[in-house]
Design goal:
By secondary structure, the protein is of the alpha/beta class. The chain has helices at residues 33-49, 68-76, 97-116, 130-135, 144-156; strands at 24-29, 57-62, 83-91, 120-127, 137-139, 142-143. The strands form two sheets. Strands 2-1-3-4 form a four-stranded parallel beta sheet, with helices on both faces. The protein has a two-stranded antiparallel sheet with strand order 5-6. Helix 1 (33-49) crosses helix 5 and helix 2 (68-76) runs parallel beside helix 3. The longest helix has 20 residues, at 97-116. The structure holds ligand DLZ. Ligand DLZ binds at residues 29, 31-32, 63-67, 88-91, 93, 97, 101. Ligand DLZ binds next to strand 3 and helix 3.
Amino acid sequence: MSSAKQNLSSQKISKKQDYSSYKIAIIVAEWNSEITNALSSGAISRLIDEGVKSENIIVKSVPGAFELTLASQFMAQKLDIDAVIAIGCVIKGDTPHFEYICQGVTMGITEVNLKFNKPVIFGVLTTNNEQQALDRAGGKHGNKGDEAAVTALKMLSF
Ligand code: DLZ
């Protein structure tokens, strides 16, 4: 999702814009909740830091990353929602399940973006192990939830 050069966590959005009227939904998968809660907190902090009102941030949870697509669609179709951030963490196991979930959610989120012409941000970690996920959920590689929030705001400014 990022390299050191493209790590958005440390970036402030350069053009100061008024985001106070935007309403943003965050969908959080419960699988690997230690990670996804950290990503969600990172996203919420960044949105508030950039001027989004806390009452305009709607947080919903789903069982796993596979369910992010439908939940994102439910939220994206609401007229008052401007952007959706889908947060999950899929960690590779011993079976091919990882590939199926990753493929499903990646394709699904892409489709929801295009179907509703709204930013639906892919804040899903897909890692080989738990340490890689921790490194990206407030660890040495930043917080990808924070980056997902930056991406949502940049796309709203597009
Ligand atoms: C089943 C499953 C597995 C094995 N691993 C993960 C994971 O690492 N991360 C995640 O978010 N969800 C996982 N799931 C659950 C699926 O996303 C989904 O909730 C179930 O397959 C039911 O549709």
